Amino acid sequence: MSKVISQEELVSLFEDKATIMMGGFMGVGAPTSLVRILVEQGVKDLTLITSDTATPDTGVGPLIVNRQVKKIIASHIGTNPETGRQMIAGETVVELVPQGTLAERIRAGGAGLGGILTPTGLGTVVEEGKEKLLVNGKEYLLELPLRADIALLKAYKADKAGNLIYRQSARNFNPIMALAADLVIVEVEEVVEVGELKPDEVMTPGILVDKVVCCGRIS
Amino acid sequence: MKTYSAKELIACRVAGEMRDGDVVNLGIGLPTLVSNYLPEGINITLQSENGFVGLAPVGSEVDPDLVNAGGKPAGIFPGGATFDSFMSFALIRGGHVDVTVLGGLQVDQNGNLANWMIPGKMVPGMGGAMDLVAGAKKVIVAMEHTAKDGAAKILEKCSLPLTGKGVVSLIVTELAVIKVTSEGLQLEEISPYTTVEEVVAKTEAKLIIPDHVGAMKGLEQLEQLEK
């Protein structure tokens, strides 16, 4: 059965107050067309889990500018001044998470783990309120798993079964987030028939993907 | 003798810390200049935390899917490899990156580093910096010796929120090279444009000053590149 749906069919899948994970690093590997659809639809009070908030007009940026997000969990917001403005004004809650910890928390959420132990953030504000554990004489922070209602991802190519291939540095958080959401929707540039992707080439197995939307190449 | 800029001096001196074959992550800004000054015969592999090794200058064609950790167009050398953020930070945290070079707002005598926020002024987020300092085998802070207003940046104790505790191995500024030891900060080298007294005056932390303080290395490299 094909997982490919039209952009119009997508709209009914989004609701207010959803927790959404979004792939991309500084907008590269971000589902730009899906962001545009979310902006047009106007769903609000979203919780967004993403590497960074890119710039006001790239990646997840337009969603922030359009004030559809009430909480952001990210590692970097400095390149999108609107995120910082909303945070300081108290309009949006921002939880800053070290980027490697963010990746591991999402992986834990998708890999059936109760959390991860990391040395990252020890002795900094990141450790506040978190449990510390000693393993073989070394101290670690317990970081808890993250999951979302929806993951919105970007891949280069998919087959109709949802197997994914990414290009260059556009992979980033996408494969990890494919594990950690109840509904996984992927924007791709090209869709091919089942069997056209060699199993050894597949970077994210299609069993993790629920919907594929072909949006072509956006430069 | 020609006078070199602070950036040139710092980048060139840091480049001298690289060993052939090192896997290195260079932070945004000044640290990225380091790769321009590698001594002959020293080849390093640059890791880009957004998901690849083999970071190269951008080629003749810009690929929108290939950027560096600052989001700017980048290239990738033959033999490079791309991967996801999980693998990228497993490399960083797991001790597979030999050296990371970062800028600093403050460093203190216990090797603490603050470089990710100024409360009330600038809260960009830590990005990958906290993972880099927690996991790289050697953490070099490359920064100007004092702040723009002249305030000391090498302190007894950092006043800004930390990026990492006890993580810094070496501080390289345009004035000096300072090693973080279990006894405190040891002055290793000074630039030919300064004196030990000036370095001490511009450093709030107490410096351990050996009988012989070396001349800052790297100048010959700069002069050679000039030719």
UniProtKB/TrEMBL annotation, chain A:
Transmembrane segments: none annotated. SUPFAM superfamilies: NagB/RpiA/CoA transferase-like. It is an enzyme of class 2 (transferase). Its EC number is 2.8.3.8. The keyword Transmembrane helix does not apply. Keywords: Transferase. SMART domains: CoA_trans. GO terms for molecular function: acetate CoA-transferase activity. The keyword Ribosomal protein does not apply. NCBIfam families: pcaI_scoA_fam (TIGR02429), PRK09920.1 (NF007394). This is 3-oxoacid CoA-transferase, A subunit. It comes from Pelosinus fermentans JBW45.
Automatic annotation (TrEMBL), chain B:
One of its GO terms (molecular function) is acetate CoA-transferase activity. The keyword Manganese does not apply. Pfam families: CoA_trans. It comes from the Bacteria. The keyword tRNA processing does not apply. Keywords: Transferase. Its EC number is 2.8.3.8. InterPro entries: 3-oxoacid_CoA-transf_B, CoA_trans_fam_I, CoA_transf_AS, NagB/RpiA_transferase-like. Belongs to the 3-oxoacid CoA-transferase subunit B family. NCBIfam families: pcaJ_scoB_fam. This is 3-oxoacid CoA-transferase, B subunit. It comes from Pelosinus fermentans JBW45. The lineage of its organism: Bacteria, Bacillati, Bacillota, Negativicutes, Selenomonadales.
